[in-house]
Design brief:
Layout (H helix, E strand, L loop, with lengths): L5 H13 L17 E5 L5 E6 L6 E6 L5 H7 L4 E2 L10 E2 H8 L15 H14 L3 E7 L1 H16 L4 E7 L7 H6 L6 E6 L19 E6 L2 E4 L3 H18 L3 H6 L8
Pfam families: Lipase_3
Organism: Vibrio zhugei
InterPro entries: AB_hydrolase_fold, Fungal_lipase-type, Sec_MonoDiacylglyc_Lipase
Length: about 260
């Protein structure tokens, strides 16, 4: 598995953050003036941004996380389902399934031939795939979970199209069957910062499984594939020891910048 480089991490993290505001000036980040497509949810809110440029082989798909009370309520639907509306060989979290298959309505109004969020995303991506571009999927929170499912469906239908999957603070989205059949373990990076409680959700051990490679950012280090119980234990221990760490000389040396450089 290739390592995720710092500039890649920073790029995807910034894009995930900038995906939340209604206005996003994508050209400032190297994308073409017409290199953005937006997919809306059924309430007319932005849910997915698709970004690309002619000179770059990479198309970036950004899923926003839960950003309304309705989204958070759907996150509570923790049973798993499998339906024809998503071409999947495994069941996934019912709430996230709904969010991906809800009708995409730019103005929050219904249309005679409206498509689901998933269908709309694929409608925009297909021309880029036919051009030979490769897809990177990223997202925050529930957006990261849905991004994993989208990437797996694309890889199944168009092999070797997915470049990488990078998620931030992502909950699990499926069970052991998804974990076993997921095609992109070697290209998926799940970023977790310290004790991000959402990364432990849904709180049903064995019933839900994560996919890909965990990169845990903790105490200035990156830990790889640390089991949840060890993440929890190490975080609690660091909290307990933190007051004593301020007594170390390394802390005093690190704070030298408080003084004038004269």
């Amino acid at each position: 598995m290739k390592r995720l480089k710092r500039y890649q991490y920073e790029r995807y993290a910034v894009l995930c953050q900038l995906a939340y505001p209604r206005i996003f000036r994508h050209t400032q980040y190297g994308f073409d003036p017409k290199g953005q497509q937006i997919v809306y949810n059924q309430h007319g809110k932005i849910m997915v941004r698709i970004l690309w440029s002619k000179r770059d082989e990479e198309v970036i798909v950004i899923f926003k996380g839960s950003h309304s009370i309705t989204d958070w309520l759907w996150s509570l639907a923790m049973h798993k389902i499998r339906r024809p509306s998503l071409p999947l060989p495994y069941p996934i979290h019912a709430g996230f399934h709904h969010l991906m298959t809800q009708p995409s309505r730019p103005n929050g109004r219904s249309y005679p031939e409206e498509m689901s969020v998933y269908q709309q995303v694929m409608h925009y991506l297909l021309p880029r795939i036919q051009e030979g571009k490769r897809i990177t999927v990223t997202g925050h929170s529930s957006g990261g979970a849905m991004g994993c499912v989208l990437a797996d469906m694309i890889e199944t239908r168009y092999p070797k199209t997915i470049k990488r999957v990078v998620t931030f603070g992502q909950p699990a989205i499926g069970g052991w069957r998804l974990h076993r059949l997921y095609r992109l373990h070697h290209k998926t990076y799940r970023i977790c910062c310290d004790l991000d409680i959402v990364t432990f959700l849904p709180p049903i051990p064995v019933y839900y499984w994560h996919v890909g490679r965990l990169l845990w950012l903790h105490n200035g280090k990156i830990y790889h594939n640390t089991p949840p119980v060890f993440r929890l234990g190490r975080t609690l221990l660091s909290w307990l020891l933190r007051p004593f760490s301020y007594h170390l000389m390394s802390r005093y040396i690190r704070n030298k910048d408080f003084f004038d450089k004269r």
